[in-house]
Specification:
The protein is mostly beta strands. 10% of the residues lie in helices and 49% in strands. A hairpin with a 2-residue loop joins strand 1 and strand 2.
Length: 145
């Protein structure tokens, strides 16, 4: 069965999330820093009247910081009544992907990526990684609405 996925880029790699869990995508204009928050939390932003925490995926994936271009986006994801923004380098594409085509990532990827990559799939010549949203946002580390 084909399902829609939102594609976004971080440091040249392409990642996807099911479109059903993505509320919307917003331009990134900075965030209000939260003292004591984990280092991967960029801060808080107000999106459509709601204050949400933003996870910087470059920091979360232990990648070097980069200057934020005009393509930087906050992908607002909702799961279990919680909204969290994912700060990515760019997000402009929605793809239909065959669920049965997703495979477990190679063992070294599972170990080195700290479980952030749940599955991988091929879309033409592109390798796409399905992220594990709960691990990425650090369910045990982030407390918010």
């Amino acid at each position: 069965m084909k399902t829609l996925h939102v594609l976004f880029k971080v440091a040249g790699s392409e990642f996807v999330l099911p479109a059903s869990s993505v509320l919307h995508m917003e331009s990134f204009n900075g965030a209000t820093v939260v003292p004591g928050a984990p280092s991967f939390v960029a801060g808080l932003v107000q999106v459509r009247g709601k204050v949400i925490p933003v996870v910087d995926l470059r920091a979360r994936f232990s990648l070097p910081p980069a200057e934020r271009g005009l393509d930087a986006r906050v992908v607002v994801v909702q799961q279990d009544q919680r909204s969290v923004g994912l700060l990515v380098d760019s997000a402009r594409e929605v793809l239909q992907l065959e669920e049965s085509e997703f495979r477990s990532p190679p063992e070294i990827v599972q170990q080195e990526a700290h479980g952030f990559v749940k599955a991988v799939t091929q879309a033409g010549k592109r390798l796409l990684m399905l992220i594990d949203f709960d691990k990425v946002i650090g369910r045990e580390e982030l407390h918010g609405s």
